[in-house]
Amino acid sequence: YYFAFDKPLWNGLVWTVANVIINVTMIIILLREHRLSLLTDHEMTLFRCLETHTPGQFRKLLKIATWHESEDPVQLTEEGAALDKLYYVLDGNITIGKQGRVIEREPKMFIGEIAFLLGRPATATVAMMPGTTYFVWRSAELRKAMEAKPALGAAIQADQLAGNASA
Q1: How far apart are alpha carbons 31 and 29 in whole angstroms?
Q2: Could you tell me if 112 and 167 are in contact, meaning their C-beta atoms sit under 8 angstroms apart?
Q3: 145 with 152: CB under 8 angstroms?
Q4: What does the alpha-carbon distance between residue 99 and residue 29 come to, in Å, rounded to a whole number?
Q5: How far apart are CA 162 and CA 148, in angstroms?
Q6: pLDDT of amino acid 80
Q7: Radius of gyration (C-alpha) of the chain in whole angstroms
């Protein structure tokens, strides 16, 4: 556009440069969104469990999550009690009590997803044994993130609905 004619075609030149800048910016954003480097072993395991999330969505979830490893038995939920957190148990033993029955479950599951999705009290009492690794999200922060990024909300709901109901 600059050398092809006697006079430079400034409109074409400006729009071509703008288009190149926009495309390079989008490529950088996409590369950052799909980068999984710098995740800890626990975070990488959680990412593999939450298969509906893109790496960018997963990093947004990690920003508002805290992870814990229990040294003592921990009760996460109580049947019929209000719940303001959502849990994901990554590793360890879980006991679920509901209507007087108690069962043991394997890890890699959400705890409190029914209460979170429906806005109701916990449907079961859930406890963990010592050495259990789990992630925690505050319901208010998670709902805010879901409202800000509808695709993130859809991915979270898909993961929760794909898992087994617990509390």
Answers
A1: 5
A2: yes
A3: yes
A4: 49
A5: 23
A6: 92
A7: 23
Sheet harboring 133-138: ordered strands across?
65-69, 133-138, 85-91, 109-111
**How high is the pLDDT of residue 165?**
42
Secondary structure (DSSP) of the chain = --SSSSS--HHHHHHHHHHHHHHHHHHHHHHHHT--TT--HHHHHHHHHSTT--HHHHHHHHHHEEEEE-SS-EEEE-TTS---EEEEEEES-EEEEETTEEEEE-SSEEESHHHHHHT---SSEEEE-TT-EEEEEEHHHHHHHHHH-HHHHHHHHHHHHHS----
Predicted TM-score (pTM) of this structure: 0.71
pLDDT digit string, tens, across residues 126-158: 999 998 999 999 999 999 988 888 888 888 877
Angle formed by the axes of helices 55-64 and 139-148, nearest 10°: 150
Q: Which two tokens stand for residue 60?
A: 């947004």
Give me 15's structure tokens.
């729009």
Which residue has 């859930």 as its token pair?
126
